[in-house]
Amino acid sequence: MATLSPHTYENEIYADGLKGIKPTISFNPLEWESQAKEVLSADSFGYVWGSAGLRETDDNNRAAFRKWAIVPSRLVKSDFPSLKTTLFGEEYDYPIAIAPVGVQQIFHPDGEIAAATAACKQNVTYILSSASSTSIENVASANDNGSRWFQLYWPSNEHDDITVSLLQRAKASGYKVLVVTLDTYILGWRPSDLCNAFNPFLRPDNIGVDLGFTDPVFRRQFRERHQKDVEEDLGTAAAEWARTIFPGTSHSWEDLQLLRKHWDGPIVLKGIQTAQDAQRAVDAGMQGIVVSNHGGRQQDGGIGSLDMLPEIAEATKDKLEIIFDSGIRSGADIAKALALGAKMVLIGRPYVYGLAIGGEDGVSHVLRSLLGDLELTLHLAGIPSASPETLNKNVLRRLTQ
Ligand SMILES: Cc1cc2nc3c(=O)[nH]c(=O)nc-3n(C[C@H](O)[C@H](O)[C@H](O)COP(=O)(O)O)c2cc1C
Ligand SMILES: O=C(O)C(=O)c1ccccc1
């Protein structure tokens, strides 16, 4: 069955309207946050909404989009724009993917299963977090024949055998691209979580440690250390898994060779914010980067992620694939990031809010809304496709310096 153009979501909604049926989830992306707040516990809402320090990096992420504006062209006779994009030699239907987000069961009981199912149904890539509350294998089953990538929180060198085990499991379960997050070897200073005394990893129900608890190498080593199984001392095991994937200190550029050796598909470094680091990624044999500051959740007082995209793209876009995140909230935001050099963007908090509000349907709603908005934004600006030939810096003007 041919996939319907995303903007046709509108037709469904207006047809329902004629029957007196009103949508339950907002179409205003900024209201997804307030709707999620109504249904989540204070702890869970504070965690997803939270950012580092005074939220300056987060604010700068949003402000960066407002420094650019789309300039439309007229009498461009074209069909609805193609949203296809090509990365690592593969064609993707849409230039968006689900950002890796940990502990999704604290937002909805169906957690990762709901989000990975929605991603498959909407033809959007799902990136599984290392801090998932559902195992690599179970998420793969839910994601079925969908496109899925695996995000690594990278254990320190003393745990290389666990790293290799995670990579092997991901590979065996059909995850095609490895995304290595470099900005979160320890959690940032997050006042919302501190005020709630809430650490998503140190919970009485131990949600969020499933990848460790299902890992044969972690389980064997736990037994050797404690002469008991993970199930016999869940609290200790959860704390040890948290220390394993958030070791407190960073790796070095040389360490990437271990990942290169054990992963034969594309590797993408997530958290890059300078052209110099992007070039280092090229030199280290990496295939892509995510220009990201983790949604401002790690380091406060930082520059907006979009502010750094043009110079990074200028320096390296012909040498590796550029993906972007941090602050994407609308179709116009996606268009701007693509125009400034990204081939794909990651959707973060918006889909988590959708998950909280409506489970699988809520995630589908957010993805369909963003894609419908993107499609009409390009179409009405006279931009015939999302590819760099037609969606590039020429369609933007910088408003302020
Ligand atoms: C609740 C939450 C959990 C996250 N967990 C992870 C994670 O496990 N791994 C990771 O690489 N990034 C994680 N991120 C960061 C996202 O992948 C992404 O970079 C960020 O959400 C983008 O910013 P935005 O939400 O403002 O768009 C998390 C973000 C949120 C909001
Ligand atoms: O909150 C985050 O940003 C994050 O990356 C994370 C995910 C799971 C557990 C702890 C932190």
Automatic annotation (TrEMBL):
CDD domains, sorted: LMO_FMN (cd03332)
Pfam families membership: FMN_dh (PF01070)
Binding site for glyoxylate: Y47, Y153, R190, H294, R297
An example Gene Ontology molecular-function term: oxidoreductase activity
Keywords: Flavoprotein, FMN, Oxidoreductase
Active site: H294
InterPro entries linked to this entry: Aldolase_TIM (IPR013785), Alpha-hydoxy_acid_DH_FMN (IPR012133), FMN-dep_DH (IPR000262), FMN_HAD (IPR037396), FMN_hydac_DH_AS (IPR008259), LMO_FMN (IPR037350)
Residue ranges of domain FMN hydroxy acid dehydrogenase in the record: 21-399
Binding residue positions for FMN: 100-102, 129, 151, 181, 270, 292, 325-329, 348-349
Names of the cofactor(s): FMN
PROSITE patterns: FMN_HYDROXY_ACID_DH_1 (PS00557), FMN_HYDROXY_ACID_DH_2 (PS51349)
Top-level taxonomic group: Eukaryota
SUPFAM superfamilies, per the entry: FMN-linked oxidoreductases
PANTHER family in the record: FMN-DEPENDENT ALPHA-HYDROXY ACID DEHYDROGENASE PB1A11.03, S -2-HYDROXY-ACID OXIDASE-RELATED
Protein family according to the UniProt entry: Belongs to the FMN-dependent alpha-hydroxy acid dehydrogenase family.
Protein name as annotated: FMN dependent dehydrogenase
Species for this entry: Penicillium brevicompactum
